[in-house]
Write a structure and sequence with these properties.
65 residues; flat; mainly alpha; 3 helices; 60% helix
Length: 65
Amino acid sequence: MNANDTAVRNQLSIQALAALLFIKVNGPSTPLFNPTPYVMSCGYEKGIIRQQTNRLESKVNSRTR
């Protein structure tokens, strides 16, 4: 547990902070934002999410047998 709580690991990078600030200033308000199209275009259509889901399901199924 202590290995995860280090100064470097818990540090927010300048790039991440800049991206979050840009979205907060220029993006739509939270109730109006629909993330589904972005999620689907980033991973689901490329098969990444399906592959990860299938891998996790096969691990779970092999452990329960």
